TrEMBL record:
This is cytidine deaminase. GO terms for biological process: nucleobase-containing small molecule metabolic process; pyrimidine-containing compound metabolic process. Keywords: Hydrolase, Metal-binding, Zinc. It catalyses: cytidine + H2O + H(+) = uridine + NH4(+). The keyword Zinc applies. Its EC number is 3.5.4.5. InterPro entries: APOBEC/CMP_deaminase_Zn-bd, CMP_dCMP_dom, Cyt/Deoxycyt_deaminase, Cyt_deam_tetra, Cytidine_deaminase-like. This enzyme scavenges exogenous and endogenous cytidine and 2'-deoxycytidine for UMP synthesis. The lineage of its organism: unclassified sequences, metagenomes, ecological metagenomes.
Length: 131
C-alpha cells in the first residue's frame, strides 16, 4: 500500500492546532493511515486532574473507531513546531493494539516498524496463547 507521508504530516499538524493544552502548553497532533485507506487523526486533550489527560493517540484511536474501525498501517506525530515527536510508552502500547502487521511510524530516527518501537510487546495474542 502506498503511504503518503506528507498527507499524514499535514493532517497531524491540523489536528495539533485543535489541541486543548492549558496546563502543559504542549500541543501534540497525530495522524494515521488505515488498512482501508482512511486517514484518522487526533490531538491531546488535557484535564485539570492532570492524570486524566488524553494523549493525541487516544483521541486518534477514538476517531479510528468512530469512523469504522480497522487497523493502522502508518503513523505520524508532531509537536507545536511541526517536528516529529515520539509517542509516549503508553501510546506505543495503544498503537500496537490497533496496528496492522508491519505498521510503520515516522520517528526522530527515520521510519521504523511498530515492533521496533515496542519490542517484544504484550498484546492481544498473548491473552489467547497464554490463557
Ligand atoms: N502527549 C501526547 O499527546 N502524546 C504523546 O505521545 C506524548 C505526550 C501529550 C500529553 C500532554 O498533554 C502533553 O503531551 C505533555 O506531556
Amino acid at each position: 500500500m502506498q503511504i503518503d507521508w506528507e498527507v499524514l504530516k499535514t493532517e497531524a499538524i491540523k489536528a495539533m492546532q485543535n489541541a486543548y493544552v492549558p496546563y502543559s502548553k504542549f500541543p501534540v497532533g497525530v495522524a494515521a493511515l488505515t488498512e482501508d485507506g482512511r486517514v484518522v487523526s487526533g490531538c491531546n486533550i488535557e484535564n485539570a486532574s492532570y492524570g486524566v489527560t488524553l494523549c493525541a493517540e487516544c483521541s486518534m484511536v477514538s476517531d479510528l473507531f468512530r469512523t469504522g474501525g480497522g487497523r493502522l498501517v502508518a503513523f505520524y506525530c508532531v509537536d507545536k513546531h511541526n517536528n516529529i515527536l515520539m509517542p509516549c510508552g503508553r501510546c506505543r502500547q495503544l498503537l500496537y493494539e490497533h496496528s496492522a502487521p508491519g505498521m510503520l511510524l515516522e520517528t526522530v530516527s527515520g521510519i521504523k516498524t511498530i515492533d521496533e518501537v515496542i519490542p517484544d510487546a504484550f498484546g492481544p495474542r498473548d491473552l489467547e496463547a497464554r490463557a
